[in-house]
């Protein structure tokens, strides 16, 4: 049966080739598109797994670049039991490098507290130096910097070369390479000189990296940090700074409510009869107000947390949500290509079946059953699906390698073995499904009627 089906396909090479091409393009698109999502998952996983500590950012900020926290909190964090070391970091975009406007891929300038950074047991950039050295105490107050390998390659830089960033000339003392497109984007320098260069507020930082000492579980330490800073959130903003509750101004809305409440309490009673009638209403109103304020205070306690503090690996949840949405969008796009491929195979099989009606009538007259005809036609469509799936998966895998090699700093696609196997099997299933309708239609024909139609 298999050899018979193969001969039938090869007897119509042009039509069969067009059906295979349609399936190939659809499977190539499936592999190529979903390799984007898998590449994103792999990059995020490899990146966050390298950072075992806590990352603290301003609540609501998506990344440290958009976060602002008080620099003075560094000492408070260091004093919390369970914290081993704290590294405050400042981040801005490097918009111009060596006179060249930088748009994509983005490059970031990082101001690092060198002494505190080197107290960390695990330093991402420090442990990934491939040329030169990482920043040391001797670099404090200087314009020395460490850059990533992609930046060095893009601007043809080596250790000892100058590099101009946002109009300021820095000196390269080290080059690092992590292999992650999320981490290999930075130029790292001393925080004090960074503030001068970037006109960065001297009293603020972008984020804190917090390393545990291992004396308490991570969830206990996390709760300690949250409890310590609770109440210093949005209600205590003054300008661009976050302050402690004792130094902050009262929330204007709370102040207004208090003034209204005091005015109502001081309002004189017009008559004893009215006061007696309103006494109960006033008590009920005060009771409802106290209940409402109590509930609001409880909600404000959580809302006034100034920082989101999580294990670095926990931030992957946000990326996973984005990846789920991306998978949905990619699935919709891929389904269009697959639909076209299925229609192409159905059309091919219908034309093939229509041309061979007489042949099928003769086979039925010689003892073939309806099931035999269905098997023959579905075998033919299966072979078309297998051919398209095989070529499509190989082409898709090769495409990811070519894109990664051509744009190493912009893309990191990954076609996993699971994705390739799924694409191939899915193509074979689509082939079978595409041949069912033509097969059932051919099987319903009466042998003699089919022979006469020929």
Descriptive tags:
454 residues, alpha+beta, elongated, ten-stranded mixed beta sheet, 14 helices, 55% helix, 16 strands, two-stranded antiparallel sheet
Commentary on this structure:
The chain has helices spanning 2-10, 13-48, 73-78, 114-117, 149-154, 191-198, 218-229, 252-266, 272-303, 316-355, 357-365, 370-406, 417-443, 447-453; strands at 54-58, 69-70, 83-93, 96-97, 100-101, 108-112, 129-132, 144-148, 162-165, 168-176, 186-190, 204-205, 207-212, 237-238, 241-242, 307-311. It has 454 residues and is an alpha+beta fold. The protein has 2 domains: 2-46 and 315-453, no CATH class; 60-242, no CATH class. Strands 1, 3, 6, 7, 8, 9, 10, 11, 13 and 16 form a 10-stranded mixed β-sheet that branches. Strands 2-12 form a two-stranded antiparallel sheet. A two-stranded antiparallel sheet has the order 4-5. Strand 14 and strand 15 (241-242) form a beta hairpin. Helix 2 runs antiparallel to helix 10 and helix 2 (13-48) packs antiparallel against helix 13 (417-443). The longest helix has 40 residues, at 316-355. Mean pLDDT is 78; it is low at 237-254, 267-278 and 291-300.
Which helices and strands occur, and which strands form pairs?
Elements: H1 2-10, H2 13-48, E1 54-58, E2 69-70, H3 73-78, E3 83-93, E4 96-97, E5 100-101, E6 108-112, H4 114-117, E7 129-132, E8 144-148, H5 149-154, E9 162-165, E10 168-176, E11 186-190, H6 191-198, E12 204-205, E13 207-212, H7 218-229, E14 237-238, E15 241-242, H8 252-266, H9 272-303, E16 307-311, H10 316-355, H11 357-365, H12 370-406, H13 417-443, H14 447-453
Parallel strand pairs: 6-11, 8-10
Antiparallel strand pairs: 1-13, 1-16, 2-12, 3-6, 3-13, 4-5, 7-10, 8-11, 9-10, 14-15
Helix pairs in contact: 1-12, 2-10, 2-12, 2-13, 10-12, 10-13, 11-14, 12-13
